[in-house]
Specification:
140 residues; alpha/beta; Nucleotidyltransferase, domain 5; 3 helices; 14% strand
Length: 140
């Protein structure tokens, strides 16, 4: 009979299964991830195929005609300077809170892009945040 106390072996932690699981997860995420190529993006003009539903508060209509004249709710502005446009927008929103007022920019297709940017800039300076650009539906 062997009366000597047995020496216990120290427990080992086998890391092989853990490493295998980590590598499988890494492969899964690499395969399922979508990589975008930012350089392949092309800019094209938007088309609108849906209509916007009407809300309770009537929006402020800012119209730009082909000659570059501005109109707010059908009334012509004296000139197309940014200060005049900003004051006219402030008058159009009146006592309403600027953040809740909708503005619809109706620019002629042949009007200069700088005029649309000027209108959007003036709306931002007044505090208008709900700005949309009117389009015509695409005929299929």
């Amino acid at each position: 009979m062997n009366l000597r106390p047995r020496r216990r072996e120290d427990p080992e932690i086998n890391l092989t299964p853990l490493i295998d699981v980590v590598f499988l997860m890494l492969i899964f995420f690499m395969v399922s991830t979508t990589f975008l190529r930012e350089s392949d993006l092309q800019v094209s003009l938007p088309e609108a195929s849906t209509e916007v539903t009407a809300e309770e508060n009537a929006p402020v209509e800012l119209t730009i005609n082909r000659q570059g004249s501005f109109f707010i709710n059908g009334e012509a502005l004296v000139n197309s300077r940014p200060e005049t446009l900003r004051r006219a927008l402030e008058d159009a929103i009146g006592a309403r809170e600027a953040a809740s007022v909708r503005v619809v920019v109706r620019a002629d297709a042949e009007s200069a892009h700088r005029l649309v940017v000027r209108a959007l800039d003036a709306a931002g300076q007044v505090g208008l945040r709900r700005v949309g650009i009117a389009t015509i539906p695409v005929e299929e």
